[in-house]
């Protein structure tokens, strides 16, 4: 008998009685997350008849369904909600989408707060790495149907009409010149996601049109969301700039960000010791506005894939050592896998809603439903000492969908939702051959960001720096 099997039997399923059905276990799992108190501060419109708890449950069940059409998924979720809770929030698919489009902005932050509390409760040993609560941030696009509503809301304006796009007119080859300049891209929703690096779970997110800036999204989330003490934001080379880094510092948090040739830093600007990698970020425009420079620590990290440069506002080595950041930063890559999970495993690479406001609501509640699947699986597996990185989201989702499909059948033994979630882990075999395809191009997978530009502070900059701090 395998070690994991022995742990499952030792852990037992004491909460699953012999007369439990799949639907009762699924209801119990939903009620564990969607408790009565989490929506106490929600204020609905005076004519609203539905309860927020049951609207969220209906939206999550719809997102969990494997039906390819949204209306079919809603019908299945409606029947399940009526059976499990004895009521359904709204009776029609259009009614649910209108309610979500109107109230998601109020409901989603309340759900995030509940998920954050459960994450700390369930995975306390993975909630922080050292003293830090590490959050990776990155962005990606999700395609929406090509409808007038989606194109107006999400597509890039005047696509293909720029100077470079029109240059084909000057080509000498008449055959190529006669071809259409370019096809308009499909409307896409931009998603900026904050992701917990220890528990491998989404933390919060923001959506916008395909031309959105992930840096601006992050600044907005810093201004609207509350983050725990000693939060450390880990980002790639796209999250640079004085405005973003100053927003993180002003919010009382820390960052660890990879930099390249798109960043210019100064050294020997002030009276701080320069032997420990201390540098300054002080763009000329910022200096003219008489704003303070940012004092940073630059670290060079050498690895098998090459050399990369990281900056952080944590200046003391004892608070964030080089060894610690070498362990932390590679974990940031997991946010890319979260995007792949949402698009491929969960099937949200292409959204299905034809209205823009419905497409945003579909993406928001798909991510919320996916986070709930992952949290339910992690809760059961941590009881068996399985780390969060061993969770198989595809198997956990299959366990949820099995309970939805066989909701009327009794659940006992290995057929319970608990047992299936405990078994939803990655294979433990050791790979003996390379995963690289034989037809893959032979190139070095090295970091693309070059070394940041580091300049000596000029006499004029030093004088402006002294004048800034000596001014009354």
What does this structure look like?
This protein has 17 helices and ten strands. It has 472 residues and is an alpha/beta fold. The chain has one domain. The strands form two sheets. An eight-stranded mixed sheet has the order 3-2-1-4-5-9-8-7, sandwiched between helices. Strands 6-10 form a two-stranded parallel ribbon. α3 packs across α14. It is globular and about 75 Å long. 37% of the residues are buried. About 2% of the residues have low confidence.
pLDDT averaged over residues? 88
What profile does the largest beta sheet have?
Answer: 8 strands, mixed
The count of DSSP E runs of length 2 or more, i.e. the number of strands, is 10
Percentage of residues in helical conformation: 40-55%
The outline comes out as: globular
Q: Strand pairing plus helix content: what structural class?
A: alpha/beta
Q: What order do the strands of the largest sheet run in, or round the barrel if closed?
A: 3-2-1-4-5-9-8-7
Separate helix tally? 17
% residues in beta strands:
5-15%
Order of helices and strands: HHHHHHEHHEEHEHEEEHEEHHHHHEH
* The number of domains: 1
Task: Give the C-alpha Rg.
Answer: 26 Å
Determine the N-to-C terminus distance: 75 Å
């Amino acid at each position: 008998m395998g070690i994991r099997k022995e742990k499952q039997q030792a852990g037992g399923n004491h909460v699953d009685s012999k007369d439990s059905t799949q639907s009762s276990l699924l209801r119990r799992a939903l009620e564990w997350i969607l408790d009565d108190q989490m929506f106490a501060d929600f204020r609905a419109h005076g004519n609203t008849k539905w309860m927020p708890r049951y609207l969220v449950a209906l939206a999550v069940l719809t997102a969990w369904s494997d039906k390819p059409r949204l209306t079919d998924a809603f019908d299945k979720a409606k029947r399940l909600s009526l059976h499990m809770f004895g009521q359904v929030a709204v009776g029609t698919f259009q009614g649910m989408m209108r309610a979500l489009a109107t109230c998601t902005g109020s409901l989603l932050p309340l759900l995030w707060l509940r998920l954050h509390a459960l994450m700390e409760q369930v995975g306390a040993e993975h909630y922080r790495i050292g003293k830090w609560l590490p959050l990776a941030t990155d962005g990606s696009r999700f395609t929406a149907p090509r409808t007038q509503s989606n194109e107006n809301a999400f597509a890039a304006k005047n696509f293909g009409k720029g100077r470079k796009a029109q240059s084909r007119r000057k080509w000498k080859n008449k055959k190529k010149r006669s071809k259409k300049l370019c096809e308009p891209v499909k409307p896409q929703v931009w998603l900026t996601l904050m992701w917990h690096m220890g528990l491998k779970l989404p933390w919060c997110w923001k959506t916008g049109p395909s031309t959105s800036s992930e840096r601006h999204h992050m600044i907005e989330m810093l201004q609207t969301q509350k983050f725990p003490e000693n939060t450390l934001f880990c980002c790639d080379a796209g999250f640079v700039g004085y405005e973003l880094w100053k927003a993180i510092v002003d919010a009382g948090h820390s960052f660890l960000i990879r930099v390249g040739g798109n960043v210019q830093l100064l050294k020997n600007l002030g009276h701080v010791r320069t032997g420990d990698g201390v540098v300054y970020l002080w763009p000329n425009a910022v200096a003219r506005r008489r704003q303070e420079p940012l004092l940073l620590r630059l670290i060079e990290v050498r690895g098998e894939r090459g050399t990369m440069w990281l900056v952080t506002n944590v200046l003391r080595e004892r608070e964030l050592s080089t060894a610690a950041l070498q362990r932390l930063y590679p974990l940031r890559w997991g946010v890319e896998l979260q995007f792949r999970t949402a698009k491929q495993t969960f099937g949200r690479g292409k959204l299905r809603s034809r209205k823009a406001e419905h497409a945003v609501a579909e993406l928001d509640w798909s991510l919320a439903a996916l986070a709930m699947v992952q949290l339910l699986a992690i809760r059961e597996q941590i009881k068996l000492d399985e780390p969060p990185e061993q969770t198989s989201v595809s198997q956990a989702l299959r366990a949820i969908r099995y309970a939805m499909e066989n909701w009327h059948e009794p659940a006992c033994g290995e057929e319970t939702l608990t047992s299936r979630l405990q078994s939803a882990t990655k294979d433990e075999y050791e790979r003996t051959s390379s995963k690289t395809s034989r037809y893959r191009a032979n190139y070095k997978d090295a970091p693309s960001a070059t070394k940041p530009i580091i300049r000596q502070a000029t006499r004029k900059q030093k004088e402006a720096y002294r004048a800034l701090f000596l001014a009354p």
